[in-house]
Amino acid sequence: MHRAKKVIILSHCILNQNTVVKPLARAKGAYNRIVKNILDLDIGIHQLPCPEYLFLGLDRKPMSKKDYDSYTYRKICKEIASSSIKVIKEYINQQYEIIGIVGINCSPTCSIRGERGILMEELLKLLDDEKIKLRFFEIPTHYTEAGENQEILSEFHDFLSMRNKENSK
Ligand code: SF4
Fold first, then answer.
1. Which of 16, 20, 48 to mutate to test the pocket of ligand 1 (most atoms within 8 A of CB)?
2. In terms of DSSP H, where are the helices of the chain?
3. Is the CB of 107 under 6 A from ligand 1?
4. Which of 29, 104, 127, 156 is 20 to 30 Å from 113 by CA-CA measure?
5. Over 60: is that where the pLDDT of 166 sits?
């Protein structure tokens, strides 16, 4: 089968809300409609690991970026960032198109705009070092799988379709 050679990088919980801090899950499993948009365009998915889950497991409490920002937690995020850069570089070297990175707005770990999360800080630093420019999209805090969300889904569809245009950090 001919490959479309298009890949998107997703924060872990877009595909698996089971890793989210308990009271904050916004879907039973995945953000199905976000994911469906991706699948419908024949885009492959690289799922980043969830650093908070790796660090504190499922029974963790909601915490701020300041709470998380310890040597050990940053080390976990640096390791994930470093292995992710290897994945991204290999795709680019093999002429795959990286559609972009999708983070979670206001997450102490995966937020991109506003107060940047710790994983995204480490990942974006490495992208800068490698002079790799990617586009970004964030799932807003009001997205829920059961909600209306038409505007967000339409923006996301544009993000997926309008490749090579703006939206880089
Ligand atoms: S750390 Fe990132 S992937 Fe994990 S639950 Fe929080 S926002 Fe989602």
1. 20
2. 12-15, 32-40, 51-56, 65-68, 71-93, 118-129, 150-161
3. yes
4. 29
5. no
**Strands of 136-139's sheet in order across:** 44-47, 6-10, 97-104, 136-139
Q: What is the pLDDT of residue 163?
A: 56
* Domain total in the chain: 1
List the residue whose alpha carbon is closest to atom 4 of ligand 1: 50
Tell me, in angstroms, the distance from the centre of ligand 1 to residue 30's CA.
13
pLDDT of residue 22: 86
pLDDT band at 164 (very low <50, low <70, confident <90, very high): very low
Question: Which of helix, strand or coil describes residue 16?
Answer: coil
Give domain status of residue 122, yes or no. Answer: yes
In a domain, 133, yes or no: yes
Say if 1 falls within a structural domain: no
CATH number at residue 112: 3.40.50
For the chain, percent of residues with pLDDT exceeding 70: 96
Which of 50, 64, 69 is the pocket-test mutation for ligand 1 (most atoms within 8 Å of CB)? 50
Q: In the numeric block, which tokens belong to residue 1? A: 């089968």
Q: Which H or E element spans position 136?
A: strand 136-139
Report CA 65 to chain centroid distance, whole Å.
Answer: 17
